[in-house]
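Raw record, unedited: CopG family transcriptional regulator
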Amino acid sequence: MNDLIDLLLPHKYTYHGHKKWGEAMSSKKMGRPLSDNPKSELIRVRVDQEILSKLDACTEKLQTTRSDVIRKGIEKVFDELQK
């Protein structure tokens, strides 16, 4: 009795034992590796066109993202305040 037929729907199912889905698969999850310092907080900032243009110029020059430039700026200001 390896084949089951659903009388209500025109589908044929094949019975493959009593293992649960994914049971034979590895226990490791696929996907992006976990970060040591996850960036889970999101902030929104209003800027004018001039600041946005400066931000984009920085991203092009440094070959990085807007978020990275903003984080570096915050670190720089914080370090200056600690002096």
